[in-house]
Fold this sequence. Notes:
Elements: H1 20-41, H2 46-49, H3 53-58, H4 65-86, H5 98-108, H6 111-124, E1 129-135, E2 141-147, E3 158-164, H7 171-174, H8 178-185, H9 191-203
Antiparallel strand pairs: 1-2, 1-3
Helix pairs in contact: 1-4, 5-9
Amino acid sequence: MFTLPDLPYEFKALDPYLDERTMQLHHDFHHATYVKNLNDALSGHNDLLSMDISTLIQNLDKVPEAVRTKVRNNGGGHANHSLFWQNMSPNGGGEPSGNLGEAIQNDFGDFKSLKQQLSEAGKNRFGSGWAWVYVDNDKKLKISDTPNQDTPVMEGLTPIIGIDVWEHAYYLKYQNRRIDYIEAWWNVVNWEDAGIRYSKALQE
């Protein structure tokens, strides 16, 4: 069975950028529902329930067709949100250093360029979805956006940063001002977590 991970900080820890009530609803209701729906869809399929979430959503062809869409949507939602919580920290913000900082310089020219491109990907994603920084098969950093709860993981790629641009991530505080939410999000991005994910991706 898949389980809802605890937040690594209190609901109010990301104030004033992400408010306490939004974080509580986002985690305890939205993410929890993805986990419940995923377990319900896979009831009786112990071989699939025993997979880790990344392996499962990379192998959707092994999921019975009758529940495949439900598993794609809810499995993606579980994977994406599990990363999203770790991608943020009350001690976040600033600019990355170390190997990740060097890679950003090499692949984007500078941090400002990465920030602009990722923000634009999130702003321009039509409807609900995500904006990503991921490591491609050549170990280069790339930016993309995906609809709904799709993720680069489904293509065998490794996301290191994901910004949730579903309205439930920001609507209580920012209403329809998605770009304001994205700009505020940069104050909580957890570069330590992203750097660890990047280093692991290089070793795979």
